[in-house]
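User: Fold this; tokens only.

Assistant: Input:
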Amino acid sequence: MRIGDANIQAMQAMEMAMQVSANNVANVNTDGFKAQQVSYETGPDGQGVRVGDVVTISTPGPLIKTQDLTGTGEDIGTVRDYTQGSNTDIAQEMVNQTLTETAYGANAAAVRTADDMQGILLDMVV
């Protein structure tokens, strides 16, 4: 594996995690939406990290009252039914995004450092 390859692989995993989290946040007000979560695994050569799986969280969302606005008089606004809301936890998604952004930045810095070191080495050889 070349210098920085594991970091690039990790950055790709962080990009996927950010996309999944952004989708969860975008659907926070979608009734019945089930949030997803990224799991990571070590690369095949024992170095780096990559996306292991994207799983759907099965915990049910909160029950939301649906109101009947078609009635007349006292019936207007009467609760007629309940629907399940999204199970997205906004606080957890903000934590996930902060951690993902930090991990991405750390790996980007490692790639830049490896690139600089390789450039210095090539300058010494030439």
